[in-house]
Amino acid sequence: MKKLVFTLVIGALALAIAPAWSADQADQIIRGQYQAVLGDCAGCHTQAGGKPLAGGLPLETPFGALVPPNITPDGETGIGNWSEADFRNMMKSGIGHNGVRLYPAMPYPAYTRMNDSDIADLWAYLTSVEPVSNKVEANQLPFPLNIRLAMLGWNALNFTEASFQPDSSKSAEWNRGAYIVQGSGHCGTCHTPKSFLGADKDSEFLQGASLQGWFAPDITNNAQSGLGKWSEEDLVKYLKTGVNAHSIASGPMAEAIENSTSKMTDPDLKAVAVYLKSLGSDAGNTQPAKPDETRMATGEAVYRDNCSACHGGDGAGAGVLFPSLAGNSIVAQGSSETLARLVLAGSQAVHTADAPTTPAMPSLAWRLKDQEIADVLTYVRASWGNAAAAVSSDDVAAVRKGLTQ
User: Fold this and answer.
1) What pTM does this model have?
2) How far apart are CA 370 and CA 32, in angstroms?
3) CA distance to 77, 109, 202, 253, per residue, from 199 (Å)
4) Which of 226, 247, 277 is the last residue of a domain?
5) Is a pLDDT exceeding 80 seen at residue 370?
6) What is the CATH number of the domain that holds 180?
7) Averaged pLDDT of the chain
């Protein structure tokens, strides 16, 4: 009888405690899902129309193609056989299950700054998603770059495992923004120039870099090429909706906004804005030589015939439909790669819940020759308060060639 009573008591306690465990686990999974949003996991690991996190499209690096792998908890083709310790080690050091060394296209040099709690939450979320059987050949680099042991030397030269260290002289909001930008948000992976080995140039943090046929712009507070003319509110609006008075997101940034920043909380967006607006740089502040008057006249004519109907004769644009080109930091970047791509291939604005309209830029590759595009971009980059270097026809030809390969 005593044994029966004891069993019933233990059973009652278990039933009482189990909902608390379930609630705690659910809370952790929800927190982990938000970490996946901050890290834009879906942006790389989910193909359009594919199962969530089951593997993505190839990332074209200067060294060859790498394919984001299946990170669902499938036992054979995903991370189902990983332990939480495996996952934490991978995030902090770039060494995964069974000691496999990752390439920094998986941005562990940024994720290393994440704290253990956030990594544990992310792990809890990933183990809760639907397992998908999808074998991915992640490493498609040519020999000898496909030998992962080479990353031992790369890490020795370019990587130090280190957690984020708050700056006690800054506000909690600034530190939160720094933690996201430097860590889970891995903004430097796209926006920081790279060395010939593909490592971040820390001295040029967030000052702009070429990426898969686009130029990820300077996002420091630089007055000419960066965010110096943007307010914190401008930046929050851009990250939340994909559009503001200065720019409309396109290309890889449109994907990042759709999958990540548009789903971030308002306090986190504000924290990111506070941090980015605190970063100064001297990049792009030198005044380039004034373009040849003949090229400016030719470029103005091309602009009037092909661009002014949307962007205005004075480059003022039309609100959120057609961005202003006057005093535009995107126009004033050191690289004209993105501008040439937009003219050649056109672009579709990102769709977000707060900005469902998706205005488009038509492709003009069929209509304009390389020299005409170079002339009109030179004109735009030297008009209405802009001061950027002239664009050559060779610059445009290189972008056109990249689009046809």
Assistant:
1) 0.88
2) 48
3) 29, 9, 9, 21
4) 277
5) yes
6) 1.10.760
7) 88
Distance CA 377, CA 339 (A): 7
Mean pLDDT in residue range 241-261: 90
Number of domains in the chain: 3
Which residues fall in the annotated binding site? 41, 44-45, 187, 190-191, 307, 310-311
What residue has token string 């930046």? 235
Q: Are residues 146 and 29 in the same domain?
A: yes
Mean per-residue pLDDT for 265-271? 98
Domain around 106: 23-158
What's the CA gap between 63 and 54, in Å, rounded? 24
Q: Which of 131, 158, 185 delimits the end of a domain? A: 158
**Cα separation values, 86 from 96, 105, 125, 134, 368, Å:** 6, 18, 15, 20, 53
Q: List residues forming the annotated binding site for heme c.
A: 41, 44-45, 187, 190-191, 307, 310-311
Asked whether residue 102 is assigned to any structural domain, the reply reads yes
Residues 152 and 50 grouped into a single domain: yes
Q: How far is CA 89 from CA 114, 125, 229, 248, 262, in A?
A: 12, 17, 41, 38, 29
Q: Which of 370, 260, 385 is nearest to 331 (CA)?
A: 385
Q: Tell me the pLDDT band of 322, cut-offs 50, 70 and 90.
A: confident
pLDDT(358) > 80: no
Give a yes or no: residue 103 inside a domain. yes
pLDDT in tens, 388-397: 899 999 999 9
